[in-house]
């Protein structure tokens, strides 16, 4: 059963992301999953590009983060951030994001929706024969928030991917 979320536009990140499944073994949980997710999201919204920058954001914003995060063992390292977030269920995380976006974004009624396809840097693994991830994103032109995204086949494009989303 889905948790009840408030209809107010000022719904908290915690309410939307608290239900994520923690991919770590119990004994390896030095940091709260919600703390890791929220630090990464806040850092990304502020322009962090990579786990080292997310860690630096956490250091620079320590006092502010402590006003709403528990951080029982301090801030997570960039290695912890990357490892934990890479193991989250992407569909579960996307669902939480989709539920959260209306709480922080104006409705897109009448706006132009843009789409763009990208190959994600460093998402390949040559030793395992895994190709880079191809992703198509859609967003309202007047807001910087991504409305949706979908992994696609290497030879696919925005025209065929967007109607499926």
- The DSSP helix count reads 7
- Please identify the oligomeric state: single chain
Kindly report the average pLDDT value.
Answer: 76
Task: Report the helical percentage.
Answer: 25-40%
Q: Secondary-structure element order, as H and E? A: HHHHHHEEEH
Can you characterise this structure?
36% of the residues lie in helices and 13% in strands. The chain has 165 residues and is an alpha+beta fold. Helix 2 packs across helix 3 (51-60) and helix 3 (51-60) packs across helix 5 (78-86). Mean pLDDT is 76; it is low at 1-11.
Descriptive terms for the model:
single chain, 165 residues, alpha+beta
What are the SSEs and their pairings?
Elements lengths: L12 H5 L15 H13 L5 H10 L1 H4 L12 H9 L3 H15 L8 E7 L14 E7 L5 E7 L5 H4 L4
Antiparallel strand pairs: 1-2, 2-3
Helix pairs in contact: 2-3, 2-5, 3-5
């Amino acid at each position: 059963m889905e948790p009840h979320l408030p209809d107010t536009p000022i719904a908290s990140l915690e309410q939307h992301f608290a239900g994520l499944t923690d991919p770590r073994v119990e004994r390896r949980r030095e940091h709260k999953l919600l703390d890791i997710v929220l630090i990464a999201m806040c850092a990304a919204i502020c322009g962090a590009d990579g786990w080292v920058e997310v860690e630096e954001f956490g250091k620079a914003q320590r006092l502010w983060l402590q006003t709403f995060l528990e951080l029982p063992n301090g801030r997570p390292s960039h290695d912890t951030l990357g490892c934990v977030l890479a193991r989250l269920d992407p569909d579960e995380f996307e669902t939480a994001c989709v539920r959260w976006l209306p709480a922080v974004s104006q409705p897109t009624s009448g706006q132009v929706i843009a789409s763009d396809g990208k190959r994600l840097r460093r998402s390949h693994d040559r030793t395992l024969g895994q190709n880079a991830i191809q992703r198509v994103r859609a967003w309202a032109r007047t807001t910087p928030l991504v409305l949706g995204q979908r992994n696609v086949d290497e030879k696919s494009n925005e025209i065929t991917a967007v109607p499926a989303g």
